[in-house]
Specification:
mainly beta; about 55% strand; 8 strands; about 10% helix; Porin; eight-stranded antiparallel beta barrel; single chain; elongated
Length: about 230
């Protein structure tokens, strides 16, 4: 432990010497889910989603990106265009807390240090880990209730457009779908840790659920201008 301050100092100097440009900011918009309950529209933001975002710009064309997002998702069969769902009448709410890490790629160069206004469309993908409430249908009253917190992974598929509004501030608009590895955001397919009763399952249990974030990001760039010569 006596060498820890020395090691920390060396790492700090090395990190500073290779520092590139960073962006940090927030994201706000709406969220919706796609699954076995409620509306089947792919983009239909009906609840609030907020979060934070950090980018490490490694070239004018790509960035490493991490984000935290908190969103409520909900579904109501009454609001579906399918008569079968209208008659069934299920509804639910769930809370998503996600951490996403991946790469953002622009279609052309986006220099965050440019003195001029710059803009570009972009794509983002990577890996998302999230927590949610594990739900199940109470057969006594057909209400969908929670049995506790659960965790899963998702693949984010995001398309967006960003522009500089000042030399340091960048505004983005994006729509991002998350393909999850669970079919129980809506309580339609509770896992056997919660119940062994197959009668609680409903809908298409062969397809996993999705959720979608649609909104804006506002980030602020800092750090020295990178040379982009090492990667």
């Amino acid at each position: 432990m006596k060498y820890f301050p020395t090691v920390l100092l060396i790492l700090s100097i090395a990190f500073s010497a290779n520092a590139q440009t960073y962006e940090v900011g927030g994201m706000i918009g709406g969220a919706n889910y796609i699954g076995d309950v409620g509306n089947t529209a792919f983009i239909n933001p009906n609840s609030l989603a907020i979060g934070g975002i950090l980018k490490w710009n490694r070239s004018p064309r790509h960035s490493f990106r991490a984000s935290l997002l908190l969103a409520e998702i909900k579904g109501d069969d009454i609001k579906s265009s399918e008569s079968r769902r209208n008659q069934r009448g299920y509804k639910f709410k769930n809370t998503i807390k996600e951490l996403s890490i991946g790469i953002e790629y622009t279609f052309w160069e986006f220099d965050v240090h440019s003195q001029n206004s710059v803009s570009a469309p972009y794509l983002y993908t990577g890996l998302t880990a999230f927590s949610y409430n594990a739900l199940y249908k109470n057969n006594s009253n057909n209400n969908i209730v929670s049995s506790g917190e659960s965790f899963s992974l998702a693949i984010p598929m995001v398309v967006g457009y960003k522009t500089s509004i000042t030399r340091y501030a960048k505004l983005g608009f994006e729509i991002g779908a998350r393909y999850t590895f669970t079919d129980n955001l809506d309580g339609s397919n509770p896992n056997k840790a919660n119940t062994d009763n197959d009668s609680l399952r409903f809908g298409n249990v062969e397809n996993d659920d999705w959720y979608v974030f649609s909104g804006v990001t506002l980030t602020f760039a800092f750090g020295r201008k990178p040379c982009y010569c090492n990667f």
